[in-house]
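Practice problem. Given the sequence and the SMILES for adenosine-5'-triphosphate, write out the predicted structure.
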Amino acid sequence: MIDMQSTAAMPRARASSETVLRTRDLVKRYGERPAVNGLNLDVRRGEIFGFLGPNGAGKTTTIRMALGLITPTSGSVEILGQDVVVHRDKVLPRVGALIEQPALHLYMSGRDNLRAVGAILGGVSNQRIEEVLSLVGLAARQKDRVRTYSLGMKQRLGVAIALLNDPDLLVLDEPANGLDPAGIVEMRDLLRQLAAQGKTVFISSHVLAEVQQICTRVAIINLGRLVTESTVEGLTRGHGEFIVRVENPTAALAQIQRQPWGAQAKLDGDGVIHTAAPNGQGRYLTRFLVEAGFYPDQITYQEESLEDVFLRLTNGSNGEVR
Ligand SMILES: Nc1ncnc2c1ncn2[C@@H]1O[C@H](COP(=O)(O)OP(=O)(O)OP(=O)(O)O)[C@@H](O)[C@H]1O
Ligand SMILES: [Mg+2]
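Answer key:
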């Protein structure tokens, strides 16, 4: 369903240490309730940064603060080293954004929508309009009314609008929302292309699987707080389990569970043991079993799926997810 072969190698190679988007102790309260609660993020130039969290986690609220659309209760957002509240007029021209659905004129053509936004922004040439149309793959349909566009085409037109002013930072809030698998792949290819051109892309989603293939790094938030910030690989590392097939699983399990590393071991419905290993290494698990008199038929290591990682990190009770 989802293309696996291409990688984010190009944007990764371009990522540098310059921080493009930084939040510090960012808080937004609505009444007593914090929607964002002390968030610290650092997004570096050239990254495709995934901003992940379940519904209501605070993603859109964070993005609205980053774009100067709402004011933080406390803390700060800096874009390219400048405070967004203090230097709003200087900073915002360097950012392109698509928040949830783009606001489009359905009875106008795609090109005329771009012209209309271009007129508001000022300084957008016809050539730039042609450029963004071909970049998002809408050149052939530019004269058709937007109401005849598929959802995926509308989302891409939204990205085209965000790109008009040739921003350094592109902020996309759930750009794949409502897209079918083919639309998601199209969007992903487009974002890869943009990152390859040196843009920094900040993309929010509540579906880890949707962004994990293109993101260089991800932050997961829940209840307004950062749960983890990591490479995708770093999220799964060390959280897998060993799968052990052995002739007498109940007896073997009892031995394993007596060990400090094996206290969490379990038997599944197929009589297969799921366990950690001494020092996290399969060969020590094998040695332990053999020394205990069990000769395993098979020991394999199974990585935790990203979906499981996401659920494990975000399903904590009342926000104390760590
Ligand atoms: N204007 C507002 N007034 C009151 N509460 C709000 C307001 N905007 C957001 N909230 C609350 O803040 C929390 C975070 O909402 P936010 O829209 O940022 O979440 P999200 O991560 O974008 O979720 P989703 O995945 O559903 O888009 C929610 O509990 C929401 O109800
Ligand atoms: Mg949202």
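Check your answer against the key. Residues 50 and 116 are 30 Å apart (CA to CA).
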